[in-house]
Amino acid sequence: MPEVRAEAPGRVNLIGEHTDYHEGFVLPCAVPQRCVATLRPRDDRRVRAQSEQIGDEVFEYELGGEQRRDAWVDYVQGLTWVLAKRGIQVGGFDLHLDSDVPLGSGLSSSAALEVATMRALRAAFDLELTDVELARIAQRAEVEFVGAPVGIMDQMAASLAGERAALFLDTRSLEFEQVPLPADLELVVINSGVAHQHAGGDYVTRRRESEEAARLLGVDRLRDVSLDRRLDEINALPSTHARRARHVVTENARVLEARTCLLAGDLKRLGQLFFESHASMRDDYEITVPAVDLLVDLSRRQPGVFGARMTGGGFGGAVVLAVTAGSGADIAANISSKYSNQTGNDGQVLLPRLT
Ligand code: ADP
Ligand code: MG
Questions:
Q1: Which CATH number is 35's domain given?
Q2: Helices 109-124 + 153-160 axis angle, to 10
Q3: What confidence score (pLDDT) does residue 229 get?
Q4: Whose CA is nearest to atom 8 of ligand 1?
Q5: Do 169 and 36 belong together in one domain?
Q6: Could you give the dihedral angle defined by the CA atoms of residues 277, 206, 158 and 355, in that order, rounded to the nearest 10 degrees?
């Protein structure tokens, strides 16, 4: 049977962090880095999977015999497990993955892997799945099989976002809109070199704390707390719950305003929102680390930068900067070298891409 090749990009979230599992708003863009999945259907029901990025090991399993192994192949097993649960038929296959989305750096290598693999499966086995359904299956695989209770942003971004428009997504309704980036805006992404793992505990703790805060406020999801009416009520909660809720509620408001800024070309205010979002993640949600805070502080002092913030789930990862178009490469090189001098970390520039 013929081989199929499919790919999916990583993403940089412009703003709207930890809002998706509260059914709020997010604003991600695709990045040029992507995962490429090459898939060859087999005559039997075996799956053999291999990744260019992780070791020489070929993982094998039988469709229907998926079992968590606490290894990257769990993302693939998760997909075939969810497909079976939904009654969608596929046969065995050999899968090869090759990705230049850095792993655990906040650009969502996991969703790029899932969506690239799903696209390859859709093409190879003629599955009638929309791009939104594909994202839903990928998210369910990550939540229910891999065991990382992530929201839907990353998979929707990998499935639907482009590079010169931000995907404004309502994660409750899954309605989305492509918001073009103004021509005078350039995005810069710098990796702190501190890697995180989303299947790890901190993300889970934040999710639980903010869900408790929602219960204390008498709502199902923090999406339902409107900013102007409820800030007093939020501030009256026990301190940790107050901070968690305040981040999600103010962050949702910032996403809505950022969308307006993009449409109006107001990069100054967009930049302020980036800085405010970072402060909220640092002080209220407590998901930044000193290395990432330093990158944002260095950005603040750099001419030509409108704003900067950590992007992605946190506890390491990358920062995104909004800068004047055409100045991205110089600004990134400047900040990255200062960062390396001060920390000894690499400070890899992920955007603009040099190759
Ligand atoms: P992020 O999605 O932000 O990069 P995650 O912790 O959610 O971070 O996902 C990273 C994990 O995804 C890796 O530890 C690995 O298991 C898996 N992964 C991503 N890309 C690949 C790849 N190219 N090959 C194998 N596994 C990958
Ligand atoms: Mg991920």
A1: 3.30.230.10
A2: 50
A3: 65
A4: 104
A5: yes
A6: 60
Could you say which ligand is closest to the alpha carbon of residue 151? 2
- Write phi, then psi, for 107 (nearest 5 degrees): -100, 10
CA–centroid distance for 302 within its chain: 26
197-215: average pLDDT: 86
Residues flanking ligand 1, CB < 6 Å: 35, 51, 53-54, 72, 75, 97, 99, 103-106, 108-110, 113, 197-198, 312
pTM for this entry: 0.95
Claim to verify: residue 16 and residue 160 sit in the same structural domain: yes
| Residue at a domain's end among 127, 144, 179 | 179
Among 20, 74, 100, 154, which one carries the catalytic annotation? 154
Residues 153-195: tens digit of each pLDDT: 999 999 999 999 999 999 999 999 999 999 999 999 999 999 8
Beta bridge partners of 188: 321
Q: What is the mean pLDDT of the chain?
A: 96
- Sheet containing 25-26: give its strands across: 25-26, 165-170, 176-180
Q: Can you give the pLDDT at residue 200?
A: 63
Q: Is 154 a catalytic residue?
A: yes
Per DSSP bridges, beta strands 46-51 and 93-99 are: parallel
In the numeric block, the tokens 């400070």 are attached to: 347
pLDDT at 226: 79
The answer to whether residues 145 and 207 belong to one domain is: no
Question: Which of 120, 148, 179 is where one domain is finished?
Answer: 179
Residue 205 maps to which CATH number? 3.30.70.890
Could you list the residue range(s) of the whole structural domain that residue 207 is in? Answer: 183-351
d(CA 205, CA 180): 35
Closest approach atom of ligand 1 to CA 313: 3
